[in-house]
Predict the structure.
Amino acid sequence: MSAITMRRPIQAAPEDRSFWLQDIEATAATKPLDGDIDADVVIVGGGYTGLWTALRLVEMAPDTRVCVIEAGCCGSGASGRNGGQVHSWYAEIDTLAEVVGDAEARRLCAASAEAIEELATLQISGAIDMDLRLDGWLWTASSKAQEGAWTRAAAATAAAGVRRFRSLSAGEIARRTGSSASYAGIAEDRAGSVHPAKLAMGLRDLAIANGVRVFEESPVRRIVPGARCSVETDRGALRTPKVVLAANAWLAGIPALRRYMFVVQSQIIATEPLPDRLDAIGWKDGAAICDSQRQVLYYQRSSAGRVIFGHGSGKIAFRDDFGTEFNRSRDRGQVNRTELARVYPMLGDARITHDWAGPVDCTSDHMPIFDRLPGHPNIFFGLGFNGTGIAQTPVAGRILASLVLGRADEWAQSGLVGLARRKVLPPEPIRYCGARIIRAAVRRRNAAEIAGHRPGRLTRFLSDLTPGNG
């Protein structure tokens, strides 16, 4: 059986790492793999998905010998450089229902809400200091075209008998955010923000404390399938009957998976600490905030008073073969700087101390996929979190753990399990060329709508072709 070649992750240079990783000087806490080791389950990827899966496995089957292998330090991928927004799946319950049906969508949404409570328990107990602040998530509109973006999700949530959202007035948004750029929206009060790298490091340490063996700075070169797979690095191999692939965007290097996923770049900036100035404009808590652009803006005030401000750039690479250029934008986050000045003109002179970027794994319906790798019944995967994973990956861990353990429970039978039922994306070069055309249209449409103009017919048509747009 042919070996599966893994795409080697390109680690960001120290100065290109996220503010979060630099803030805590995140480094590997474990030694690289050296030699050959036997395990019951090997998880490739030490981000949220891989670590939550490891924790669920030892929780469900304590005698299982679980190993996590990570190319850099745990959390050095998307888990350590995201915007730190924590909100439930109820914001996407309508989209989720289109994939799994109403009943399953409601169950998964409830599970993500329970995951937020699990994070709170970990914070309160002192198990993980992640700077979790459940001050709410504000889903807003900053132009007429964005108004009501939440209507379907809010209605589906209410129909499920769940009171998760409440309406926001322009006055409350201005008071809470210190900005009048957004003027309508809804709030999920039991949501908020987190320090992503602290969460990732905390999950790593918790996994180790629970008996999981973690090998950092150990890029996987290839996986040799079989009854006992061999997960190989430059210096050793893990022999195991079961493998879990949890390497987010880097799974695009596997042709069988690339057909169902695409990779885009997200970009984020961080200002210098501005606690007094943010207090003065009324922005005092840890609420997570976003608008409803097609390349959504998302931001938070960090616990130290920095503004963390990001958006999905939509930048793509041919064959999803991204490299160092995805770790930092060439213009040093200029689009974000411009948008920050629009949303917070009074902070136009604030010094930007960090700008970073990175790949995000996406699917055509913006919902993750779990399954066995085609042709390999003992190799499992989870991918496609579409930039929304802090409250969702704890649920993903349950799904993957149940699949690995051969359970016939509600997790293993989730509607998110099954590659064949999901939409296949176009092949190259159609995918790359089409994505560039659509990206340009989306940017034109965003700019026009924020300025209060109606985009042209062609721009509207092309931007509506964005995957996940319905």
